[in-house]
Structure formats: C-alpha cells, structure tokens
C-alpha cells in the first residue's frame, strides 16, 4: 500500500478557548513533568486489525529513568462496549512538559490537538464508531482485512491525500497550539476507566527494551517489534467482563490467556506506567492510509 500521509479533515478545526480557567481543567491530569521535549512522532505502519472488536490505540513517547522510550501503537479490546480511547499527550506549560494519561470513556476527550493518524486527527476520532454493541471500522483510515474484520464502512471525506509535515508530539509553545472545545471538555467530565492490564503490560515491556529508548534509536524506533506483533496478534486479552462476553467467540478462536485479576483495581504507577488520568508518559503517531506509514 502507498505510504502516503493522511490529514484528517474531520476534527482538525480545534476551538481555541481564551479562558485560562477552562484550560486549567485539562492540566489537572498531569502525571509527570520533564524539562526536555519528547521526540517528534516517528513514522510507522499500522498492523492489520486482528479481529472484530479491537480498537486502535496510538503509540506514544513514555518517560522512564533512562529518558524517553517509544511504546508502539496496538490494537486493544475496550474494557466496555461503547467505550472509545482518548490518547495520552504531552503538554508544555510553565517551562515543563507534562504528561496527560489517556483513558477509556463513552466520548473522545482532549488529547492536545496531536495528529496521531489512523483516525486520531487531533480532535475526535474518525477511525470507527459504535453501532449498538458492535464496533464498525472506517477502512479508509484503518488497516483492516475484510475477510477477517466484517464490520466496516468507508468514509473518504475525512481523508486528504496530502503528506503531513507537522510531527509535533506535544501541545504548547513550539508544538501544537490547541485548546479543548466544548465537546472535549464535556467528555473529560464523564466517567472514565484507566488503561487495561494488557495496555499496562505492553508499556512495561517496552520500558525494558533498550532499543525503544530515544537515546538509542535517536527518535526512529524500528518499524517491526516482535513484542508489538505479539500484542497485536493476541489483542486486549484483559478486557472487562462485558466486552469479554460480547466477543467470546473471537476470544475462543484466538485461544488467548485470561487474567483472573480485576482489570480496574488500583495499581501504583511505576516509571512509565499507565494510570487513569494520572499515569506515566505516552506519546504519539502519524498520518497515513491503512497499511501506509504514519506516526504513532
């Protein structure tokens, strides 16, 4: 497939709010502060969706004792039917770069205006939608094999065949100057759930791989990662009970392991660890057609 960057038109127009009080609500979720900016978003190819029921969660730059490291994007089963993923983002404010953790919820919240690609265009999500208890995929922006994934549609109006040159990975001066719109502010006040155990394990595994360190890969992590392939093949194996039941036939076909621990128990947030709104760092993605190169 052509490695052409895609600029999502839908959701690209961010409403700029002048009220510092309103924007301060966004800053409450900062989990860690760093004095150096995260690297630009790398260009990568989205792996194919493994089966119906998975949602793409873009990659991000996390931060640990040895600096920034890349956590590749991965297909994940949501913890609950009807939930969508609001990506994490870095924000520059007060002279430091603060990390805002991602979360699951019924609507997409603010994620810094960062264009992670594959449906995450800076505002909202155009990569898919829930219809009843079924998730449908927009094959115009996702890498889906219709012989495996059957709930698809095509919406080309959200795609512009222009390579995106802005690879900024943070919000604020020197990066993306966006503010949350009213819909995003409303979504941020809704009930949220933290990253699933599978997402946490994925991030922790990347934190132990020196090749993911920005200091080692110079901001250009390898396109192929065996651990990432493992997670994409076995998908969100720690989904919540309602989703596990809704996708039980798929889980049986995949022969995946189930963790008996509760998914949403409180866990300490270690270096680079996920958390609800207050986890450790994550980073971003890029643009591209399904199967094409994007950041994230």
Describe the 3D structure.
It is a single chain. The chain is α+β, with helices and mostly antiparallel strands and 296 residues long. The chain is 18% helix and 20% strand. The protein has helices at residues 20-27, 182-188, 197-207, 214-217, 226-234, 241-246, 248-254; strands spanning 7-8, 30-34, 43-45, 55-57, 60-64, 67-71, 74-76, 84-86, 89-93, 96-100, 103-105, 128-131, 134-138, 152-153, 159-160, 170-171, 293-295. A 4-stranded mixed beta sheet has the order 2-10-9-16, with no helix packed on it. Strand 9 and strand 10 form a beta hairpin. The longest helix is centred in the C-terminal third of the chain and has 11 residues, at 197-207. 53% of the residues are buried.
Low-confidence sequence ranges: 1-7, 9-28, 161-165, 235-289
**Helix proportion of residues, in percent?**
10-25%
Please give the radius of gyration in angstroms.
Answer: 17 Å
Name the assembly state.
single chain
Which class of secondary structure composition applies to the elements?
alpha+beta
End-to-end separation in angstroms reads 18 Å
Tally of helical runs: 7
* Largest sheet entry: 4 strands, mixed
Task: Please state the overall shape, judged from the principal axes of the Cα atoms.
Answer: globular
Widest beta sheet: strand line-up: 2-10-9-16
Strand content: 15-25%
| Extended strand count | 17
Instruction: Summarize the helix and strand pattern as letters.
Output: EHEEEEEEEEEEEEEEEHHHHHHE
Average the pLDDT over all residues and give the rounded result. 73
């Amino acid at each position: 497939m052509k490695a052409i960057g895609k600029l999502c038109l839908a959701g690209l127009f961010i409403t700029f709010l002048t009220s510092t009080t309103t924007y301060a609500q966004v800053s409450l979720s900062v989990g860690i502060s760093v004095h150096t900016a995260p690297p630009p978003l790398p260009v990568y190819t989205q792996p194919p969706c493994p089966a119906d029921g998975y949602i793409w969660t873009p990659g991000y730059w996390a931060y640990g004792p040895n600096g920034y490291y890349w956590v590749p994007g991965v297909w994940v089963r949501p913890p609950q039917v009807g939930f969508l993923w609001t990506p994490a983002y870095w924000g520059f404010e007060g002279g430091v770069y603060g990390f805002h953790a991602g979360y699951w919820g019924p609507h997409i919240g603010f994620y810094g205006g960062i264009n992670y690609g594959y449906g995450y265009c800076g505002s909202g999500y155009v990569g898919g939608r829930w219809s009843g208890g079924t998730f449908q995929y927009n094959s115009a922006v996702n890498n889906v094999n219709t012989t495996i994934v059957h709930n698809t549609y095509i919406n080309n109006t959200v795609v512009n065949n222009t390579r995106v040159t802005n690879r900024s990975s943070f919000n604020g001066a020197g990066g993306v100057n966006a503010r949350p719109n009213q819909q995003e502010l409303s979504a941020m006040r809704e009930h949220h759930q933290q990253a699933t155990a599978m997402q946490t394990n994925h991030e922790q595994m990347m934190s132990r791989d020196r090749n993911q360190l920005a200091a080692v890969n110079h901001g250009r992590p390898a396109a192929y990662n065996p651990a990432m392939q493992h997670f994409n093949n076995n998908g969100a194996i720690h989904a919540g009970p309602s989703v596990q039941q809704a996708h039980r036939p798929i889980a049986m076909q995949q022969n995946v392991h189930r963790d008996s621990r509760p998914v949403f128990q409180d866990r300490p947030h270690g270096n680079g660890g996920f958390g609800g709104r207050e986890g450790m760092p994550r980073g971003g993605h890029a643009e591209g057609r399904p199967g094409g190169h994007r950041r994230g």
